[in-house]
Design goal:
The chain has one helix and 13 strands; from the N terminus they run H-E-E-E-E-E-E-E-E-E-E-E-E-E. By secondary structure, the protein is mostly beta strands. The protein has two domains: 55 residues, no CATH class; 94 residues, RNA polymerase II/Efflux pump adaptor protein, barrel-sandwich hybrid domain (OB fold (Dihydrolipoamide Acetyltransferase, E2P)). The strands form three sheets. Strands 5-6-13-11-8 form a five-stranded antiparallel beta sheet, with no helix packed on it. Strands 1-2-3-4 form a four-stranded antiparallel beta sheet, covered by helices on one side. Strands 10-9-7-12 form a four-stranded antiparallel beta sheet, with no helix packed on it. Strand 9 and strand 10 form a beta hairpin. The longest helix is centred in the first third of the chain and has 14 residues. The protein is elongated, with a radius of gyration of 18 Å. The termini are far apart.
Length: 159
């Protein structure tokens, strides 16, 4: 198993939503763990063979996004929004259960570690937390629809 194979395995596990994968072969032992605490990381451990250890960070994207032309901008010519993205592939849910209220609505103020939604991956429900402070200006995904790794799910106005 070469370095490229190991990198591809790490990417596959990060996208799959699995919490832990162990692979043992004759001369190598690999354990890849993803945590559900903040920030979500993938860790590679191995038997001594001379292949360097790696870590993959699958934390939220905090990329500023320019406001779309149909969005209310207010008095400023351009408002920058921050995306909250899905850290895993799965199904997006706005509520913890069908009979409970939604986690956040447009206009709600969030801070770091505020739970904004859940993503179900492989029968596990993962709470997704905001990593930024600000006001939710747009929900980009419909409740109950699939989301991809890195897909924007909320826009937050940090001002």
């Amino acid at each position: 198993m070469d370095l490229k194979d190991i990198q591809n395995l790490i990417k596959f596990v990060a996208k799959s939503g699995a919490s832990e994968v162990k692979l043992e072969m004759e001369d190598i032992k690999i354990t890849i763990k993803t945590g559900t605490e903040r920030p979500e990381t993938t860790i590679l451990q191995q038997a001594p063979l001379g292949i360097p250890q790696m870590a993959v960070n699958t934390a939220f994207s905090q990329t500023p996004v320019q406001a779309a032309s149909d969005e209310p901008v207010g008095n400023e010519a351009a408002v920058k929004y921050i995306e909250i993205t899905s850290p895993i592939i799965g199904t997006f849910y706005r509520k913890p259960s069908p009979d409970k209220p939604v986690f956040v609505e447009v206009g709600d103020v969030v801070s770091p570690h505020t739970v904004v939604c859940m993503v179900e991956a492989m029968k596990l429900f993962n709470e997704i937390e905001s990593e930024v402070s600000g006001k939710i200006v747009k929900i980009l995904v419909e409740d109950g629809t699939p989301v991809e790794y890195g897909q924007p799910i909320f826009l937050v106005d940090p001002s």
